[in-house]
Design goal:
By secondary structure, the protein is of the alpha+beta class. It is about 40% helix and about 20% strand.
C-alpha cells in the first residue's frame, strides 16, 4: 500500500469531492456529531463541513492564524492486498492508519522534537472509499481536522513523510510490499509506457504525446513558461504523481525531443538491418532452392522443371533440370490436396522434394535419368511407360504422400462432449 498526506486550505472542496463523488462509500468516522449514513446526502455534506469548519473554536492561537485547517490523506492498498475486503475490513484499516500516524514523532540529531506526535484519535475525521475510474483500484480518502476536540492542534510538519512511514509500518506487519518498492515499480511501468509512446509517434508533438499518455490510463499535467513553452510535466497514476525527471532523466521536458530522435534513429537502423537480413536470406534460399516450372511447348503435355539443390551442408548446390509428364504433377498435386487438412507444408517445398526423390529413384539402372551439374543440359526423355504409366503415377503419388506426411501434423482441437 501507499499513502500520502498534506495540510490543505481548500477543505470545503476536498470534503465535497470525497463525500459526494459518484459511487463514493462511507466507511467510518470518529468524534463527529450526529449519525452518519452509508451514503452522504447534501444535508450530511453541509453538516460534515460545518463540523470541520468550527472544530477549532476551542483552540487559542499562539501566533498567526491557522489557514490550513484540514489534513487530506489518500491511502491505497493494491488490488491484491484488498481483495475480498468488506466494509468492516476497510473500517479496521482506516483506524489502523490513524493509529500508526499518531505513533510517529521526529527528532533532530540533538534530540529536539522537529515534528510532534499527532492526536488524530481525538480529532474529527471521516473516511470515504473510492474506486479509481480507470484501474478500479480502491482507496480511502481520509479527512482529518487540524484541531483536537480538547482545543489542541495537530502538528503537520513532515506530515507527508509520516504518512509514508505509517504505510511502510503496515506493509511490514502485513507482509505487503514497501511503498518505496511500489513506487519504483510504478515509475518503471510509466517509463516503459512513455518509451513505447515515443516509438509509436512519427513526429513529436506535445498534444499528441498527452493524448497517448491518457489512452494508457494515466493523467498528465504540463507546466509552461511565459512563452507557452513546455518546461516540465508530471504523470499521475491513481493517487500517485511523479515528475518526469523522477521517471527518467531522458524523459524530462528539456531532453524528450532528443530522446525521440534517438529512438527513431535506432528504429530506422533496425528496419534497414532487418530488411538487409531478409534480402540476404531470400537470396541464399533462391541460390540453394532455385525452382522454375514452365511449359516445354504449348502443344505438349510435358512440364519443364529446374532447381538448385545442395545434398550436403557447406557444398555448392547442384543444378537439376528435367521434363515430366503433366499427369505425374497432377497426381502429386491431388495427393497433397488430400492430406492438406492433416499436415502443414509449403507446396513449393514438397513438390520440389517429391519430384527430386521421384527422379532419384528412377535414376537407378533400368530407369530414366535426369541431367545435373553446372546448369548444363536437359533430358527430355520421360520415364518409360509401364501399363500406360500407371506404375509411375502410383509411385509418384506414394512419394508425394510420404513427403507431405513427414511435415508437422496439424493440431486438432475437439470440444468436450456433453
Amino acid at each position: 500500500m501507499i499513502a500520502r498526506a498534506r495540510a490543505i486550505t481548500h477543505g470545503h472542496t476536498y470534503t465535497n469531492y470525497s463525500t459526494m463523488k459518484k459511487d463514493a462509500e462511507f466507511v467510518c468516522c470518529e468524534n463527529m456529531a450526529g449519525d452518519m449514513l452509508f451514503t452522504a446526502t447534501e444535508d450530511d455534506l453541509e453538516s460534515i463541513w460545518l463540523q470541520f469548519k468550527y472544530a477549532g473554536e476551542n483552540y487559542i492561537p499562539k501566533g498567526k492564524e491557522v489557514t490550513r485547517k484540514m489534513i487530506a490523506m489518500e491511502v491505497s492498498p493494491t488490488l491484491e492486498e484488498s481483495k475480498g475486503w468488506t466494509k468492516q475490513n476497510w473500517d479496521l484499516f482506516a483506524h489502523r492508519v490513524i493509529e500508526e500516524m499518531d505513533n510517529i514523532e521526529f527528532r533532530d540529531k540533538k534530540g529536539k522534537v522537529s515534528s510532534k506526535q499527532t492526536d488524530f484519535a481525538h480529532s474529527k475525521w471521516l473516511a470515504m472509499l473510492h474506486h479509481d475510474a480507470k484501474s478500479g483500484i480502491p482507496h480511502l480518502h481520509i479527512m482529518i481536522s487540524r484541531f483536537t476536540v480538547d482545543g489542541g492542534i495537530n502538528d503537520t510538519n513532515l506530515i507527508g513523510l509520516k504518512a509514508s512511514m505509517a504505510a511502510n509500518s503496515i506493509n511490514q506487519s502485513m507482509g505487503w510490499k514497501q511503498s518505496r518498492e511500489i513506487s519504483r515499480e510504478h515509475k518503471t511501468e510509466i517509463k516503459n509506457a512513455l518509451y513505447d509512446i515515443l516509438r509509436s509517434m512519427d513526429r513529436f508533438d506535445w498534444d499528441l504525446f498527452v493524448r497517448e499518455i491518457k489512452k494508457r490510463g494515466y493523467s498528465v499535467e504540463l507546466r509552461r513558461d511565459n512563452n507557452n513553452k513546455v518546461v516540465g510535466y508530471r504523470i499521475q497514476r491513481g493517487n500517485s504523481k511523479y515528475n518526469a525527471s523522477e521517471i527518467g532523466r531522458q524523459l524530462s521536458a528539456s531532453r524528450i525531443m532528443t530522446t525521440w530522435k534517438q529512438l527513431h534513429k535506432e528504429i530506422d537502423a533496425e528496419a534497414v538491418s532487418r530488411k538487409e537480413a531478409e534480402q540476404k536470406a531470400k537470396k541464399e534460399y533462391e541460390m540453394r532452392h532455385h525452382f522454375v516450372c514452365e511449359p516445354v511447348h504449348p502443344d505438349t503435355e510435358k512440364v519443364h522443371y529446374e532447381f538448385n539443390r545442395s545434398l550436403e551442408e557447406g557444398k555448392e548446390p547442384e543444378h537439376y533440370t528435367f521434363d515430366v509428364s503433366q499427369r505425374i504433377v497432377d497426381g502429386m498435386m491431388d495427393t497433397f490436396k488430400s492430406v492438406e487438412d492433416v499436415c502443414e507444408f509449403v507446396l513449393e517445398d514438397v513438390i520440389e522434394t517429391s519430384l527430386f526423390v521421384f527422379f532419384e529413384l528412377l535414376s537407378v539402372p533400368g530407369g530414366s535419368h535426369y541431367s545435373n551439374g553446372g546448369g548444363g543440359g536437359g533430358n527430355n526423355d520421360l520415364p518409360h511407360k509401364k501399363k500406360d504409366g500407371d506404375d509411375e503415377l502410383l509411385r509418384a503419388r506414394r512419394i508425394a504422400k510420404a513427403i507431405a506426411m513427414s511435415c508437422p501434423r496439424k493440431t486438432v482441437r475437439r470440444g468436450y462432449r456433453r
